[in-house]
Amino acid sequence: MKLIFVGADHEVTGSCHFLECCGKNILVDYGMEQGVDTFENIPLPVPEAHIDYVFLTHAHIDHSGMLPLLYARGFRGQIFATDATCDLCSIMLRDCAHIQMMDAEYKNRKNRRTKDAPVVEPLYNMEDAEGAIRRLVPCHYGSVVDVCDGIQIRFTDIGHLLGSASIEVWITEGEYSKKIVFSGDIGNKGQALIKDPEPTEEADYVVMESTYGDRDHPAQEGDFETMLADIIQKTFDRGGNVVIPSFAVGRTQELLYYLRKIKVDRRIKGHDNFPVYVDSPLAVDATEIFTENRMDCFSDEAMKLVKQGINPISFAGLKLAITSDESRNINFIEEPKVIISASGMCEAGRIRHHLKHNLWRPECTVLFVGYQANGTLGRAIVEGAETVKLFGEEIEVRAHIEQLRGLSGHAGKSGLIWWIEQFKEKPKKVFIVHGEDSVATAFAETLKIEYGQRAVAPYSGSEFDLAAGRFTYEAAPVKKAKKSATKVVTGVYARLVAAGQRLMAIIKNMEGYPNKDIGRFADQITSLCEKYDERK
Questions:
Q1: Interatomic CA distance for residues 171 and 147, integer angstroms
Q2: Which residues pair with 343 in a beta bridge?
Q3: What does the alpha-carbon distance between residue 111 and residue 155 come to, in Å, rounded to a whole number?
Q4: pLDDT of 275-333, one tens digit each?
Q5: Cβ distance 421 to 199 under 8 Å?
Q6: With contact defined as beta carbons under 8 Å apart, do 408 and 370 qualify?
Q7: How far apart, in whole angstroms, are the C-alpha atoms of residue 487 and residue 498?
Q8: Other CB atoms within 10 Å distance of the CB of residue 102
Q9: What is the CATH number of domain 224-403?
Q10: Could you say which architecture CATH assigns to the domain 2-216+409-473?
Q11: Whole-prediction pTM value?
Q12: pLDDT class for 111, splitting at 50, 70, 90?
């Protein structure tokens, strides 16, 4: 009964935890690292083909984005997630695969100009994304799910994103029974579109995020709707565009909710029919999924509109750009407009084209409404970069740079403390993860000193025995080394390695099969091996 910390330890992205219990290997999230990470993460403790289950807290790529790679390397288990998370992953993982493939194609096209340049392989492809999606198992909020002998789980709405959840895991192994709760990303209270986070009352152990563990969201001078309307009014009066880098899933839909209210209340004077462009195929698909899941996930305020027959995230003047041509044409329309485009941290996607066309224009505004991770282009712009590089060209930053924090999907420090204090009895241990280095450490100290919690912020590689209630290994931080030149492993060879891992996983699970079947399988493997031995 072991818990191993793999990713998002003293860092904010790349969430991944490993459970070994009841003879099963389980991942809780398997996310992609985004931006610049400080520390090295350990590799998965077992080959990907030996993972039996994944429990997924929500669909954001820093929690789900490596699932296609897991599949590519031989994983054929089940991925348990809420209904809405499964719906969102069905589009987000495909989108992520598309980005991987397009990036590899661009780099290879560029590398062809250089002699002996290596061939760049995508991290994974569309087939891998489709394979991961087929492994998804939809679960309802509040229902106890029997995963296998000795393991049960339950998803509770955590209010961070449509379908987001904390996950309760009950483990019974021999004489020991333990309950561990993974918070996932804890949502902010009072969001306009989705429900507030629901607490959990009992746990032996808790793995808890700490993104804003050192601060509450700063108080704004007014409500979000008023501040957004004021920025739009001033920008339009200057003849400029309001460009909003936004996460396609979650943040974009909240923005549409507020923009609808601004339009209905006629708060933008002299520009009554201003257009709003959502330039992201992913955001368009996600908006449809939000509408389909509204009965389970929408807040009371949003549901009042739904019951009146009003779609709270649609309005006159909303224009959806799907094709590349539609995206490019936006920047040739002279009329002042709002452009919402992904990605939210400006690291990829169509937003980079809109920045190229608008950052140098002093009449325009670039408005940030979400967290900007260390090392991202968005963080550089927010922190006052005078120039940025886009598509090989230096672009001066002359536009007005604004930042509104009222839409944060993460609970601030007070919200995090509220959540952990809802447990009727203090857990035996609270593991603090998913926070920048100093933040995770500080939040763990706050919980210990001020609230009497048994809190600790482990580094990647730390191992905890859940039955014995102690660390069997406490890893030290390992700084990320600069990338050195390494031998390029082709995608075909990687597929072969993954196939070998999958073969070993099958062999592992064949114990107890009839001897006749095992013997036949062994003979087939031996025959194949001899065929290739002869080629040496």
A1: 10
A2: none
A3: 46
A4: 999 998 888 899 889 888 777 788 888 888 888 988 899 999 999 999 999 999 999 99
A5: no
A6: yes
A7: 18
A8: 12
A9: 3.40.50.10890
A10: 4-Layer Sandwich (3.60)
A11: 0.86
A12: confident
Dihedral, CA of residue 53, residue 55, residue 60 and residue 66, to nearest 10: -20
Rounded CA-CA distance 85/161 in Å is 9
pLDDT of 459-506, one tens digit each? 999 999 999 999 999 999 998 876 533 333 445 666 677 677 778 777
Q: What's the token pair of residue 367?
A: 């408005």
Largest separation between any pair of C-alpha atoms in the chain: 82
Strand order in the sheet with 24-30: 136-139, 78-82, 53-55, 24-30, 16-21, 2-7, 463-465, 470-473
Exposure of 357 in the CB half-sphere (CA atoms within 13 A): 18
Determine contact, residues 126/100, Cβ cutoff 8 Å.
no
Question: Following DSSP, what letter does each residue of 111-158 receive, concatenated?
Answer: HTTSTTPPPPPPSS-HHHHHHHHHTEEEE-TT-EEEEETTEEEEEEE-
For residue 227, which of 262, 197, 198 has the smallest C-alpha distance? Answer: 262
Name the token pair of 181: 């709760």
The b-or-e profile of 187-211 (16+ CB within 10 A means b, else e) is bbeebbbbbbbbebeebbbbbbbbb
Query: How many other C-beta atoms are found inside a 10 Å radius of the C-beta of residue 447?
Result: 25
